[in-house]
Each structure stands twice: as structure tokens, then as C-alpha cells.
Amino acid sequence: MKEKIIKKAGELFLKLGFKSITMDDIAGEMCISKKTIYKYFCNKEILVEESTNYMHKEIHGTIDTILELNLNAIAENFKIREMFSEMFQSSVDSSPIYQLKKHYPEIYEKVMLREINECSMWFRQNIVKGIENKLYRTDLDIDTYVKFYYTLIFSINENTSSEKESQRLELEALEYHTRAMATPTGIIELEKQLQNQNIQ
After folding, report:
1. DNA-binding region spans which residues (predicted)?
2. What pLDDT sits at residue 183?
3. Is the dihedral of CA 109, 57, 60, 194 positive or negative?
4. Each residue of 74-89: pLDDT tens digit?
5. Helix (H) or strand (E) holding 146
6. Do the beta carbons of residue 48 and residue 13 sit within 8 Å?
7. CA pair distance 141, 154, nearest whole angstrom
8. Single pTM value for the model
9. 199 to 87, 124, 196: CA distances (angstroms)
10. Phi/psi class of residue 21: alpha, beta or left (left: φ > 0; alpha: ψ in -120 to 50)?
11. To 5 degrees, how large is the angle CA 184–CA 185–CA 189?
């Protein structure tokens, strides 16, 4: 039951926001009593923390599945971004990450620290792969580009309250990041991916 509560809470927090969802809402969605939830979680904050841990595993499991497809480095980045867009399709305009930062700053700090470490590893792997694919330049200072990109992405998430605007800016950041690294062949692949975005 504990796992089911964590999963349902995570879905609701992503869909409707961390602030607006109450223990009553979760109990109502699951057709259980609020008392049952409190049996496992003494307050909402603990449930928020557990659900962010659960979402972290889900997101990273999905990213691992995408990496196993062995797409080229640029297609891979666009595929991961598409996955995030689908996952963070909020019913309210307020970004879940922005809400987490505003209402649960300590949990947000833990989440961000973990994400920066893991994302830095992926960004690095992606740049190495792109160089091998001849889509990114060989003269890149990989550490610097990793730092540039995660600073850009996390800054957007931290400071943009609208989920729709956040996703628009993330796509712009991905294009900016890719153009800065791309070889002429990489630019062709980038244009193809951007064209696919316009069709969707």
C-alpha cells in the first residue's frame, strides 16, 4: 500500500502541483481513508520527499531505456526532452519544479543536488558520444560545456513558474547547446530534429 500511495501522490503532484494537492485529494483518488495515508506518512512533507525519490527512479529508468536505443547523440537529447515534456504535462500552468522550490525548499535542494550529479554524467556521456558520431567538434572542453548546459537548464527550471514557458525555453536551450558544439554534419541532424518538433 505504501508504494501505491507514493506512486499516486507522485502522479498527482506532477499533474496538479505540489502545493494544491492535499492528503484528502490523494485519499479520494485512491478510495482509501486519510488515516491509511497517515499510517505510512506522518505529514505531507515526508510524502512529497518519498514521491520525489520515486519520480527520480522512474525518470532515470526511462532515460536508461532511451540510452539503450543507441540513437545518435543529438537525436538522443531530443528524445529525452520529449520524454520530459510528456511526463511534465501539467493540468495547471504552474511548473511542478518551481512549486517544489517555493513550497518545499529543503526537499528541492536535495533533488537538485542529486539531479545535477546524475545529469552532469549524462551530459558528459552525450558529448563524448557526439564527438565519436562526428556530430560534435573534437576541440570541445567537455567539462565546460557540461557546466554551461546544466547551469542553463536548471536556471530555467528554478526561475520559470509556467510549465509551458519552461518547456519552450528548454527547447531553445537544447538548440543553443547543440549549435555551440555541432560540426556541419551535426547542424544537419539538429535541423532535422527541429523540423520534427515543428511537425508534432
Report:
1. 22-41
2. 98
3. negative
4. 999 999 988 887 777 6
5. helix 142-159
6. yes
7. 20
8. 0.84
9. 20, 29, 5
10. beta
11. 115
